[in-house]
Amino acid sequence: MSRRPLAFAFTLLTLTFAVSAPAQWQKKPYKDWSEKEALNVLNNSPWGQTQVYTDTSHMFDEGRAVVSNQKREIEVPEVRFRIRLFSSKPVRQATSRLIELMQKGQLSKQLAAQLDGLANAEFPDYIIVTVTTEADKAGSLMGLAASLLDRQTTVSLKNNTYLSVKGGKRVYLAEYQAPRKDGLGARFVFPRMVDGKPFVTADSDEIFFFSELDNGPELSMRFKVKDMMFDGKLEY
User: Fold this and answer.
1) Using one digit for the tens of pLDDT, what is the confidence trace for 185-222?
2) DSSP bridge partners of 164
3) Residue 203 needs a FRET pair 20 to 30 A away by CA distance; which of 54, 78, 91, 215 works?
4) Phi, psi angle pair for 45, to nearest 5°
């Protein structure tokens, strides 16, 4: 029997958005990124992408028809899952830059040091995928999206959450950490080394993240390894 209740009967609308070109994150230091550029790294880049679901259960009573480019479309509530390779430097640098911009020139020395540490730390032991949720419609859907990740546990996810690479090789979830107040989202933690070797290499083709959320939808995202070079290093 499926573990997904009807209350969370989302239908996948689209998996990814095209990565913009040329890559602006290679053109200048992260401390010079604009808010738009930092958000692009987090949501539309080789290290951060967006999976969108639409709530079909309310399509007919809450949706409304609109005309765009001479096509009849339906506006329906959406839930966006921001899926990011947090252990990659670009994602952490974009996060650090956004926090800095939010301070509007009032960045303390202590916070500046913390942000620098976040942006430049090394992750030799783990691959960390973070997931946040957003809903574009207030009400029960937004509340459901906000609480979904809070209810997950390592035990409920460990057999249905993994990373895979070329050839079908998988590594399963080592630990799940629910969202904290830092705004970074839920952490899905995987070992970086398997049998004494890096799980991901330049020949891996892609990193495929999959998680069947307990009482929720399936998350799945593909990250192209060939696009993940940053400052001369494979970042993930």
Assistant:
1) 999 999 999 999 999 999 999 999 999 998 888 999 99
2) 170, 208
3) 91
4) -150, 180
